[in-house]
Every structure is written in structure tokens, then in C-alpha cells.
Write a structure and sequence with these properties.
The chain is an alpha+beta fold and about 425 residues long. It has 2 domains: about 35-155 and about 315-380, Periplasmic binding protein-like II (D-Maltodextrin-Binding Protein, domain 2, 3-Layer(aba) Sandwich), CATH 3.40.190; about 155-315 and about 390-435, Periplasmic binding protein-like II (D-Maltodextrin-Binding Protein, domain 2, 3-Layer(aba) Sandwich). The protein has helices at about 1-35, 50-65, 80-90, 105-110, 125-130, 135-140, 165-170, 180-190, 210-220, 240-255, 265-275, 290-295, 325-340, 345-355, 365-375, 380-385, 395-410, 420-435; strands spanning about 35-45, 70-75, 95-100, 115, 140-145, 145, 150-160, 190-195, 200, 280-285, 300, 310-320, 390. Helix 9 (about 210-220) packs across helix 10 and helix 17 (about 395-410) runs antiparallel to helix 18 (about 420-435). It is globular and about 75 Å long. The termini are far apart.
């Protein structure tokens, strides 16, 4: 009997242990399931192995935030990222945030797909963070006084040039063209032909596929002209300054013969520069680290040359928060965005990719300070922000950009005059945008 009692006691103790272990297991399971999962869409079309850099930053974030899991889905270019993210949203798949074109803001708002960061932040520290970025980078992200886009993968157009070719042509390797006339003069000295008259080395190349409207935005800014208004419901493609800017672009190939006639491919231009087929190229600062790592020659980076003034549109991607995320997911996404845009991470990102540090504080970190000191080209895009303007961004931005892209290419290919092409593009853009006023 005593044994039976002892056995019953043991059984009760064992049962209590099992119940306790079960409760702990259930509690642990609940904690595991309480994790917030985020899906982030990300474009990787420029500048080397960006996925590795993003993965590294995300890993650091997850270690510091064990209650948040991040699934980064990589797309090709910005358009691919937008299409994939919106397709996921439309099909009910989870997506809480994405890096997409900074110029997508009006289109995303029209689709009712995003919410302003102002609606998610709550603390004084977060409000300070919201105002911590370079003002020029915020122009494409603020609409009606609210911030819909936070800068991350941001750039300006810069001029890369081959210093060895400058020396060989008798030019000062430390002096890139500072104005349009110098671009012509130096470009002609840098253009070489063989005995048959075939060009073996071009003076300059400006890409006109991929993002021709972006390069055109630099030329029009240098004419002291903006292509659209802040509300994104008006364009100014047919302004005389815009026409003159496109005529100059065409003349670089046709009249001055410092670059190839017709269109120049965005996707192969960096390789053309690295293979020394051109002495100068206009391209994103997002290529800086890739050029630095691959160039077998001495190269420099300079601001774009001026006409009336210097200038470049900003470019690249912003973080956006999707409206259909839960409150918890939006706050978790905010934590991720805050982490990835912190001065330390922004400095790491800039060093490893070539994209600019998105805040003044990023350039005050010891790492980026030292990097810029040892490699001054890393500061060119930042310094050019004082001459920067917003990138072309309108309602139905994809349609409007294509109108301008087609007009530019028609002129460069000799199919239309600049005035004809831009007047036609303006009329069509007017029809699209008039309904949004």
C-alpha cells in the first residue's frame, strides 16, 4: 500500500512535470509565433553584389531584433521591384515594405498602396530621424507635407573620367570639364581614330537607354530648367531650355563627334569605360565601388559640367511602407528602415556600393570619414547635392517617363528634331496629367 501510495505520488509528480514542461513549450511556441515577419522587395540593378551587402545589414538587424524576421526578395531593376511588390499585394501575398524608385511616389499614392511615415512614427526621436536626411534627397519623397519615401539607395549622376587618357591627350588629369564648352573641347582631343577613320576611343558617352529621362534631367538642370512641378501634375518638356538641352545632347554625337551617334546602352556603358572605349562617361554614383574595384587605370570622378549652372537630378530608391500591413508589421518595418538608414549602416552601405551616405551624420562616422579622406571621389555625389534637383516624378509616372524617353531617343537617332519630339511628348503628357489637377 505504501508502495502504491509512493507510486501514486511519483505519478502525480511526473504528471506535474509534464504539465510544467508542456506549459513552457506552449509558452515558447507562442513566443516563436509572436515573431513579426517582414517581406521586403529590393532592386539590385546597379553597382555590384548588392544582395550580399543588403543581406549583411539585414542579418545585423535580426541579431539585434530577434523578434523580427526579414525576408528580402531581390528583383532586377526598379521597375521589376515595383511590379513584383504590387503583384504580391494584389494577390494577397505578404509584403510590408520595399525599396522602389523615389519617383514612384505619386503612382503608389494613386494606387493607395503606401502610407506616410508620419502616420507610423510616434516618438520625438523618430521625428528627429525623419528630418535627418539630406534635404535634396527628400524632394521626391515628400508630398503635401508628408513623408512617403525615406532615402536609402540614392545617387546623383557623376562624370567618371580616365586620367591616363587625359595625360596622353595632353590634358590636366586633375581637371575634368567644368562646363559644356570644355566637354566639347576635351572630348574632341580625347577622341581617337585609326588610319581608316574608324573611332577607336571616344571622348565621352552619355547613356540614352535604361534611364534617358534621368540624363536629360541633368542637362535641363544645367540649363536652369525643371521638367515638372512638385505636385507631379504638370510637365515642361517643350520649354525652349529643354529643347536647347536636347539639341546639345544630339550635337555631341552629330556635330562635335565626341560620342557615338544614336543611342548608347546604359547596361554596357560601365564596361565600355572599364575597357577604355571612352575617356568619360556619365553614370550613377552607384557604380563607384564597382569601377574602383575593376579599373586597371587611374580614374577620376567629377561633378557634371555646367552650362548656366551645374546640376544633376537625384536618383535611386526610397523605402516605402505598404498600407495593407498590420500595425505591428508597420512598426517592425519602421524599425528595419531606421536601422538600415542609421549613420553607421548608411556609411557601410556607401563604402561597399558607391551610393551616397544619405544623411550628413553618415559622413561624420569614423568609417566614412576615413574612406572619403583616402578616396575623395566618394564625396563627389554628396557635394553635388547643392546643385541637385528632384528626379522626374509625376502621376502615371511610367507612362509619362516613356513619352520623354521615346522623344529623346527619336532625336538622338535622327528621326525627329528636338522641338518636334518634345512638343509632341508635352501634348501627350498634358492629356495624361490634366485629370489630376
Amino acid at each position: 500500500m505504501k508502495t502504491n501510495l509512493n507510486g501514486a505520488t511519483v505519478m502525480r509528480k511526473n504528471l506535474k512535470k509534464l504539465l510544467t514542461v508542456g506549459a513552457i513549450g506552449l509558452s515558447f511556441s507562442a513566443l516563436v509565433h509572436a515573431k513579426t515577419e517582414l517581406t521586403m522587395y529590393y532592386p539590385v540593378s546597379v553597382g555590384g553584389s548588392l544582395t550580399k551587402v543588403v543581406d549583411s545589414i539585414v542579418d545585423d538587424f535580426e541579431q539585434q531584433n530577434p523578434d523580427i524576421d526579414v525576408n528580402a526578395i531581390y528583383a532586377g531593376n526598379y521597375n521589376d521591384a515595383r511590379v513584383k511588390a504590387l503583384a504580391a499585394l494584389n494577390s494577397g501575398q505578404p509584403a510590408q515594405l520595399s525599396v522602389m524608385f523615389s519617383i514612384d511616389v505619386h503612382e503608389l499614392m494613386d494606387l493607395d498602396a503606401i502610407v506616410p511615415f508620419d502616420d507610423v512614427i510616434s516618438t520625438p526621436e523618430e521625428k528627429t530621424w525623419l528630418n535627418s536626411f539630406h534635404p535634396a534627397l527628400m524632394e521626391n519623397g515628400i508630398v503635401d507635407g508628408k513623408t512617403y519615401g525615406i532615402p536609402f539607395q540614392r545617387s546623383t549622376i557623376v562624370m567618371y573620367y580616365n586620367k591616363d587618357m587625359f595625360r596622353a591627350a595632353g590634358l590636366d588629369p586633375e581637371k575634368a570639364p567644368s562646363n559644356w564648352q570644355e566637354l566639347i573641347d576635351m572630348g574632341q582631343k580625347l577622341t581617337k581614330k585609326d588610319s581608316n577613320g574608324k573611332v577607336t576611343q571616344w571622348g565621352a558617352m552619355i547613356p540614352s537607354t535604361g534611364y534617358p529621362y534621368w540624363m536629360f534631367g541633368a542637362l535641363t538642370k544645367e540649363k536652369n530648367h525643371k521638367l515638372m512641378n512638385q505636385a507631379g501634375d504638370k510637365t515642361y518638356f517643350d520649354d525652349p531650355k529643354a529643347i536647347a538641352a536636347l539639341e546639345f545632347w544630339q550635337d555631341l554625337g552629330d556635330k562635335y563627334q565626341v560620342m557615338p551617334k544614336g543611342t548608347i546602352e546604359w547596361g554596357t556603358l560601365r564596361q565600355n569605360f572599364l575597357e577604355e572605349k571612352t575617356a568619360m562617361m556619365w553614370h550613377s554614383t552607384g557604380n563607384l565601388t564597382a569601377v574602383k574595384n575593376a579599373a586597371k587605370f587611374d580614374f577620376g570622378v567629377a561633378m557634371l559640367p555646367a552650362d548656366v549652372e551645374r546640376g544633376s537630378p537625384t536618383g535611386g530608391g526610397n523605402f516605402y511602407l505598404f498600407k495593407n500591413a498590420t500595425k505591428e508589421e508597420k512598426h517592425a518595418a519602421l524599425e528595419l528602415v531606421k536601422f538600415m538608414t542609421s549613420p553607421e549602416q548608411a556609411a557601410k552601405w556607401s563604402i561597399q556600393t558607391g551610393y551616397m551616405g544619405i544623411s550628413p551624420a553618415a559622413y561624420q562616422t569614423p568609417e566614412l570619414k576615413e574612406y572619403v579622406s583616402n578616396f575623395p571621389p566618394a564625396a563627389v555625389a554628396r557635394d553635388q547635392l547643392k546643385f541637385a534637383t528632384a528626379e522626374l516624378s509625376t502621376h502615371q509616372s511610367g507612362r509619362v517617363r516613356k513619352l520623354l524617353d521615346d522623344a529623346i531617343q527619336a532625336v538622338l537617332n535622327g528621326q525627329k528634331s528636338a522641338e518636334q519630339a518634345l512638343t509632341s511628348a508635352q501634348k501627350q503628357a498634358e492629356r495624361i496629367l490634366s485629370r489630376y489637377r
